[in-house]
Amino acid sequence: MRLLRNFMILCGISAAGLYWWTLPAPLDASAMAGLTGDATRGEAVFHATGCASCHTAPGASDSDELVLAGGQRFASPFGTFLAPNISQDKAHGIGDWSALDLANALTRGVSRGGEHLYPALPYASYAKLALQDVADLHVYLQSLPADPTPSQPHEIGFPFNIRMALGGWKLLFLSNDWAVAGNLTPTEDRGRYLVEAMGHCGECHTPRNALGGMDRSRWLAGAEDASDPTGVARVPNITPAKLSWSEDEIAYYMQSGFTPDYDSVGGHMAHVVANFARLPVEDSKAVAAYLKRVPAVE
């Protein structure tokens, strides 16, 4: 009986410790203090992070790309996630959010209400965003229109609908460490920030394990295309093992959408190219320089 009692006490302590470790961990309340956002810089952050690519309404035309009403569907092995309204509507969007609220969502995966967010929002990558960039993005978002479309609930079942479990997921996969470490040139360093943080390229181009975490031992080595229900389509390997283009060819592709073989970009990558075409050409060159530093994975 004493052994059983001690065992139960140990289980209780372990459960309490696990619960504490998996609680949402927002930023300190003063994290954004002293940061003044700039809308011009924020527009560049908006395009580099691809906000419109996911949060415009399904079928929206180019003229409506800045109406961030949400509703696009993203299939995954864990269910289908629907992009929320992040327009400036105060009732159904994020019009009442502070810069700190935005930073908590993007870098910590914590909602304004203090709940874990699902990593369909790529906070596993955005965790590396500079808070100044978040402040700039916040100011730019405030300049965009409001839309009253309510956000739709995700279509996910048990046990993936238990948000507390996401605390354990974060313990395993949420990190500020760079996938490509070491001394980089200033251009390569900018490219790393664009690829690993802002552009969240690894979210699509890196294989995932059974729990949905990116397998960083195969960084950018290609993965299944979750949007293809047949399971046949692949997101390509863009490590030097398979991407043989020169830096100039990569940079030109990022700006124009044309490959060295005169093929043109398609699928989700078309959104990425459209976004990078709005950024300085130096950013595309930085991405190209970084990709040449990525370890080759067959």
From TrEMBL:
Gene3D superfamilies: Cytochrome c-like domain. InterPro entries: Cyt_c-like_dom, Cyt_c-like_dom_sf, Cytochrome_c-type_DH. The keyword Transcription does not apply. Coiled coil: none annotated. It comes from the Bacteria. Keywords: Heme, Iron, Metal-binding. Residues 37-145, 186-295 form the Cytochrome c domain. Pfam families: Cytochrom_C. PANTHER family: ALCOHOL DEHYDROGENASE CYTOCHROME C SUBUNIT, BLL4482 PROTEIN-RELATED. This is C-type cytochrome. It comes from Pseudogemmobacter lacusdianii.
